[in-house]
Inverse folding.
């Protein structure tokens, strides 16, 4: 498992195994998203159902959003957006290398609700504060 943290909410990884899920549970992961279609890696690739069963036994939510390489759809992005807004804890997305998991996440961040969750509390500011500042700056240009 080659885990790379994208932000405080989301990390990506290459193919996870049931043993990797044990480690993720210890680290506090609340959701694992599998973007790799079953069978893509041959017989050595764990099937999604086996990973889902292991995740459930560990108390980790599990989602299967199979994305064929270079074929990310709006449905894939919408599915991840829905998952991210309902799972505030640490999330790990994975595929063969982590690239699809990252690409779908970057597209999902374009949703205001998901983007707001990914901002650090120290630096993001409240929506009201940001809107007030934006209105103030716009007012300067009108004067």
């Amino acid at each position: 498992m080659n885990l790379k943290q994208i932000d405080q909410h989301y990390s990506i990884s290459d193919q996870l195994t049931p043993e990797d899920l044990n480690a993720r549970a210890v680290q506090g992961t609340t959701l694992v998203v599998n973007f790799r279609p079953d069978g893509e890696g041959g017989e050595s690739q764990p099937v999604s159902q086996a990973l889902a069963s292991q995740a459930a036994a560990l108390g980790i939510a599990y989602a299967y959003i199979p994305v064929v390489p270079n074929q990310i759809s709006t449905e894939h992005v919408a599915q991840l957006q829905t998952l991210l807004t309902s799972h505030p804890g640490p999330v790990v997305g994975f595929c063969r290398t982590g690239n699809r998991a990252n690409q779908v996440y970057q597209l999902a961040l374009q949703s205001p609700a998901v983007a707001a969750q990914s901002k650090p509390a120290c630096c993001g500011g409240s929506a009201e504060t940001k809107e007030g500042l934006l209105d103030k700056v716009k007012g300067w240009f009108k004067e």
The chain is about 50% helix and 15% strand. The radius of gyration is 18 Å.
